[in-house]
UniProtKB/TrEMBL annotation:
Its cofactor is pyridoxal 5'-phosphate. The gene is pabC. This is Aminodeoxychorismate lyase. The keyword Lyase applies. It catalyses: 4-amino-4-deoxychorismate = 4-aminobenzoate + pyruvate + H(+). Belongs to the class-IV pyridoxal-phosphate-dependent aminotransferase family. Pfam families: Aminotran_4. It comes from Halomonas llamarensis.
């Protein structure tokens, strides 16, 4: 059962010593659950935290009373910390990991899916730390600082590059682009978060990994940002933080990534159905 309280001496609160997942629920069932669970397991393994059992993780979304009606879409946030204790950075001799979760109603920003978005390039450069690359750990200060760089409501996301000026991701989404008819996404071996939508697209071979230097961004045919909660947003303009347009892209109509996205949604829907069937057999 998830704990509703976080003590002051919790290491996740004190040091960011933990991981989290943000999961889209449809009619009470998680979308891309296998990918979220796998990333959480991988993050706990990297940090050396005992991973909660699958039963404990599934209880975060299977605690409904019979006949309970859920909002059509919700966000489930799962947090796993190392727990309390330890002196300074030293680990407690017998850690007791803490699992917390919360569900909130969610309405996706569908206009951004169909009308496209404007993005800017953040000044902040991501540091390389291969041991933490890909996982969704609790220390997101780089993303927080990057998000402070713009205040305009008409800018949906900020693009992040690394110290070598290679594009990596957006502040809360992964990055995709089309070139010569194929769809690509940056490598994340040095930094960045391996999103579950990105992982699903990679596993189905809808996209390919390749580097994108910042200086080459203006040459790509199409650009998208996306995650498992909001889906895929086509980028129609690159702007400065104060809104000055630097580059425009046409709104895609019948392109490769949208087709891949539709196939992915179909797979995700089938996964939700299979979860319901498995639950009914228990």
């Amino acid at each position: 059962m998830a704990s509703p309280m976080l003590p002051f001496d919790d290491r996740g609160f004190a040091y960011g010593d933990g991981v989290f997942e943000t999961v889209l629920l449809r009619d009470g069932e998680p979308v891309l659950w296998d990918y979220h669970r796998a990333r959480l397991h991988r993050g706990c393994e990297v940090l050396g935290i005992q991973t909660p059992s699958d039963a404990a993780l599934e209880a975060t979304w299977q605690t409904a009373e019979q006949g309970e009606v859920f909002p059509q879409q919700e966000i489930l946030k799962i947090v796993v910390t190392r727990g309390s204790g330890g002196r300074g950075y030293a680990l407690p001799p017998t850690p007791s990991p803490r699992l917390l979760s919360r569900r909130t109603p969610f309405t996706p920003n569908s206009s951004r899916r169909y009308e496209g978005v404007r993005v800017c390039i953040c000044d902040l450069r991501l540091a390389h730390q291969p041991r933490l690359a890909g996982i969704k750990h609790l220390n997101r200060l780089e993303n927080v600082l990057a998000r402070r760089e713009w205040q305009r409501d008409d800018i949906a996301e900020g693009l992040l590059a690394d110290q070598q000026d290679n594009l990596v991701e957006a502040t809360s989404m992964n990055l995709f682009w089309q070139q010569n008819g194929a769809v690509w996404t940056p490598p994340l071996e040095q930094c960045g978060v391996a999103g579950t939508l990105r992982e699903a697209l990679l596993s189905r071979r809808h996209i390919t990994v390749a580097s994108l230097p910042l200086r080459e961004l203006h040459r790509v045919e199409q650009l998208w940002v996306g995650n498992s909660v909001q889906g895929i947003w086509p980028v129609v303009a690159l702007v400065t933080p104060n809104g000055q347009v630097q580059k425009r892209w046409p709104l895609p109509t019948n392109d490769v990534l949208q087709a891949a996205g539709h196939r992915l949604l179909g797979v995700a829907s089938q996964h939700v159905v299979s979860l319901k069937q498995n639950n009914e057999k228990r």
